[in-house]
Structures are given as structure tokens and as C-alpha cells.
Amino acid sequence: MLWMWNRNMKRAAGILLLLVGLGLGATLLRDAVPVSDAQNQSGSPAQPQANSAAAQQPLRPLSEANSRLQDEQNTIQITQRFEPGVVYISTATESVVNDPLAQLFGGSPSQNRVQEGLGSGFFVNEQGDILTNFHVVGEATRIQVRLFNNERVFNATVIGKAPAYDLALIRAQNIPRNLIRPIPLGDSDKLQVGQKAIAMGAPFGFDFSVTTGIVSATNRSIPIGFAGLNQQGLNQNTIQTDAAINPGNSGGPLLDSTGRVIGINTVIISPSGAATGTGQNAGIGFSIPINTAKALLSRLQNAGGGIVQPPRIGVSAPGFRLSQLSAEFRQRHNLPANGVPIQSVEPNSPAATAGLRGGNQTVNIPTPQGAIPLRVGGDVVTRIDDKPVNAIEDIQAALLNKRPGDTVRMTVRRGNNSQQLTVRLTDASFQTTRQ
């Protein structure tokens, strides 16, 4: 019945093998770069189409010498002006490891382990708030930052974390006001493929390095963030760049030719890392769009060290796609080939207020691993704000940049009919877990 199941699951497994990793590296690699493990230590918006007249105009040839000099001068000016806003981040995470065999040799069965790491960040305001990746600071018990051309080390604390977005906001203590150099934030919604991109950070611990390239693609959807503290999170739209990004660059800024931050460098694809476990740049890096961070900034600033959760509308959905089911099964249970079948709706939630309906009958999907229950007979969400959705991650990604009071327009299939519902997000949709 589910002849497509195994084939698609194998394909999905292959994709996950390509895209799963911790650190900035192969496969899809994020950092904070591990330094030591010591024992017993304390989319882009649609671009306007050129009209036929403009398309027929001959391109003006570039003066290669002059354009090179102009580009070099632009890079030099941006580096000199904004690199002082970049910070070098080092972390240490203490944990207790149980080793029963240690007693046989006169040691303690419980040993302290300190995992050290490093990454990058940048100032976003005059108060000294530093934006970085969540995976750079994680659950670190010690966070320290160092500034450009300054050997002094400052202790830092976490103001707010957003694991699902792979973002965190930290603040260093006792930094002189004149050393706080915020970098202006740009508008990632206006990016165009081919425009200049400048990456700043600390690749492989070589602090305050600069690389250049272009925006290779916008709205590149890949898994970013963590659903839990140690789990991979949501598919999100990212900026793809060929500016060299390596372990240690995570959390550093990606700038445009005006010196404004357009993204936060977070992950790369590195074929070598799949074999060796050590990632290196392969010309395909990804940055979280700065507009995502801007939408979260006030929530991070008010999190009190807690965790900022993605917006919720109060629905549950299966962990697989309808396209993985056989056509026969879908036809029998009146399911479309694409869309997200709603399993349940929380009472008094935005989804319930909008009239969204969950399934009313449970059927079992046979698989080699055992039967998987699926509730049918409810609404199937097919589009959100005119964008197709096929998994719960698509719904979550569509809500990432929303704020309380915002609405989303959902197209649902109910029975054999299609209709639109408007879901309004409330304050209860935006949760912060205090620690």
C-alpha cells in the first residue's frame, strides 16, 4: 500500500545525512568550534522582470582595473569602519561524566569534564547587546568575549536564547562605552542574488578575519535551529553565500557593500566533513536573514535569560508528509497529495478561534517499523499567506517573523471543498520559558 514510503524515507535519510551536523562543517555543520575536552578541570522577494526594451540594451563593458580597485576600496573601508563591532566569543561547558571503570584504578566514578568552544558575534546597540548563534553559547557555564585590537577578556551573560531560530543575545560586563561599536542592521528582504557579501568572524580561531563573496541565493530553505536544546529545529529561509565561512565564523555578521548587516553566519555544507568530521568551506555557506533577528530582538532583550519560543497557533500535525503515503491510501481516506492534516486543535487557541478543525477518526498506517496512527476527517492546511505548506515545519516557518496581533491567512481543504480561514496571533502565542 505504501510503496512510496521506503523510497521516500531513503531519500529523506540521504538528505538528512547531507544536512545534519553540529558545528560549521560537513554535511551541514554548525560551530561553536570545540577547542578541547579536558578531564578534571574547573526568499527573496520576486525581482522585477526587465522589460523587452531594457533587455535589448547592450551591457556597458566594465573597466576591469577600475572596478577591481573600487571593490577593494569598498572592502577596506567597510572592514576598517565596522570590524571593531565584531566580538570573539569563547565558551566553557562543565559537565559530570560517570566512569564506573575508574574505580578499578583508584579513581572517582564521577569526573568533571570541561568542553571549550569558540565563535563570533557583533554589537547590535549602544547598550552592548551582542547577537550570536544559540549553538555558539548553548548551555555554556562560562562565556567570555574579546574585542577587536584589545587583549582584555570580558565575562558575558545570556540575556535571551531562541534555540529554534539558532539565535542568542548576550551582554558582556564592564565594557567601556567607547569600545561598544554597534553595526547597523540592513533589510534582508531586499537582497538580490549577485550582490556583494562580506563575512566577519573567527574561522578556526583566527579571530577577526574577513572574507568576501556574493549572495548566491536567497530564501534557501534548510534546517536551522533546535526544536529542543540539543535537537535540530525548523526549516527556515536562509541566505546562501560563497563568502568563505568556516568553524568559528558562527554568529558573525554578513554585511553588504554599504556595511549593513544582512545576515548572521551560521552553517555551511562541507563534503569533506561527512568523511572526516571536520568541516571546511566549500563555497556554500548559509546565514540567518537579519530580518528574522530584528523581529526577535525585543523578545530576546526581555527574556530575562530564558528561552524565546516560536509562535504557536495551537495545532498538532503528523511528523511525515502526505506525499509519502500511497495514492491508494490517500484516495481511500480523502487526503490530498500535499498539505498538512491537522490532528488536533487546542481549545481557546488562535486556531480554535479561527475555526480550524482537527481529525475525528484514527487510522493506522502500516510501515516496516510498525503502525503509525493518523487522524483523518479534519482540515488539511494547504497554503499559508499564499505559500504552499507540506509539513508542520512549514507552518512554523511561516510564523517565525510574526508578532502579537498579526494575522495569517490559511487555505484549508475541508472534505472536498477549499476555504480560507484567518488566524490572529495573540500574546499567548508568544511564549518565553524562564530558567
Describe what this molecule looks like in 3D:
Residues 37-58 are annotated as: Disordered. Belongs to the peptidase S1C family. With 435 residues, the protein is α+β, with helices and mostly antiparallel strands. It folds into 2 domains: 18-40 and 81-96 and 112-307, Thrombin, subunit H, CATH 2.40.10.120; 315-433, PDZ domain (Pdz3 Domain, Roll), CATH 2.30.42. The chain has 9 helices and 25 strands. The chain has helices at residues 3-19, 52-56, 64-82, 134-137, 271-276, 290-301, 327-332, 350-354, 392-399; strands at 27-29, 33-39, 86-98, 110-123, 129-132, 142-147, 153-162, 167-172, 196-201, 209-224, 234-241, 253-255, 261-270, 285-289, 307-308, 315-316, 340-341, 344-345, 361-365, 372-376, 380-384, 387-388, 407-414, 417-424, 432-433. Strands 9-10-11-14-13-12 form a 6-stranded antiparallel beta barrel. The protein has a 6-stranded antiparallel barrel with strand order 3-4-5-8-7-6. Strands 17, 21, 22, 23 and 24 form a 5-stranded antiparallel β-sheet that branches. Residues 1-28, 36-52 and 273-277 have low confidence and may be disordered.
Topology:
Layout: H1 3-19, E1 27-29, E2 33-39, H2 52-56, H3 64-82, E3 86-98, E4 110-123, E5 129-132, H4 134-137, E6 142-147, E7 153-162, E8 167-172, E9 196-201, E10 209-224, E11 234-241, E12 253-255, E13 261-270, H5 271-276, E14 285-289, H6 290-301, E15 307-308, E16 315-316, H7 327-332, E17 340-341, E18 344-345, H8 350-354, E19 361-365, E20 372-376, E21 380-384, E22 387-388, H9 392-399, E23 407-414, E24 417-424, E25 432-433
Antiparallel strand pairs: 1-13, 2-4, 3-4, 3-6, 4-5, 5-8, 6-7, 7-8, 9-10, 9-12, 10-11, 11-14, 12-13, 13-14, 15-25, 16-18, 17-21, 19-20, 21-22, 21-23, 23-24
